[in-house]
Amino acid sequence: MYRHIVFDIDGTLIDTEKTGVLSLIDTVKSLMGTDIPYAEAYKFFGIPSSKVGDILGYRGGEDFGEVWEQNFIRLSDMIKPFDGVAEMLAAVKAAGRGTGCVTSRNRFEFNKDIHLAKLLHFLDHTVCAEDTVLHKPHPDPLLKYVSLAEEALGTRIDMSECVYIGDTMHDYQCAASAGCDFALADWSRRGLQGIPAKYHFTEVKDILKLI
């Protein structure tokens, strides 16, 4: 059905929710003296860490993103790939589809993930926060993927040939503004959460329906 299947990482390929959310809660508490509920902190899941401090109104002297990074590393033992991800990616590649990831992670966060490292050979192209000026929900990261794939293949790619798989409204908005279809990875079964996704998947193996 699609020639290119592009993935978000956090909450889609790698289960980083608890680490990301709990480390943000700790960061807000230590830097701002505020208790933020889990559900509220979850809303920032998938947004570049460099931006979250500004959104929350942090004006302190310490770098919000760096402190969050330190807390994230401290809690990183909770991180793991979602069950079936490696097998799903292998099947997508075996079907001859182009693959990639578009993530809000910076390249340092991307490179130090030992779980993600085991999946990279399944991904043709990777787009991190530094690779575009504008980030999700803007279309630029997905357009960057298409640019990389076009250069590698030597042919033009229409956005209708692509589908982006993610778990947040920001992911959907990035796909919609880029002009490609979106599939919601709802592994935690939260429901659509108001996200008008074309596809709603509750199991990793459901992604194979796209090929």
Provide a descriptive summary of the structure in words.
This protein is of the alpha/beta class. Helices cover 39% and strands 14% of the residues. The chain has helices at residues 17-32, 38-42, 49-55, 64-74, 85-94, 107-111, 114-117, 140-153, 169-178; strands at 4-7, 14-15, 80-81, 98-102, 125-127, 162-166, 181-185, 199-201. A six-stranded parallel β-sheet has the order 5-4-1-6-7-8. Strands 2-3 form a two-stranded antiparallel sheet. Helix 9 (169-178) links the parallel strand 6 (162-166) and strand 7. Helix 3 crosses helix 4 (64-74). It starts with a strand and ends in a 10-residue tail after the last strand.
Structure in a nutshell:
The chain is α/β, with parallel strands linked by helices and 211 residues long.
Q: What's the layout of helices and strands?
A:
Layout: E1 4-7, E2 14-15, H1 17-32, H2 38-42, H3 49-55, H4 64-74, E3 80-81, H5 85-94, E4 98-102, H6 107-111, H7 114-117, E5 125-127, H8 140-153, E6 162-166, H9 169-178, E7 181-185, E8 199-201
Helix pairs in contact: 1-4, 3-4
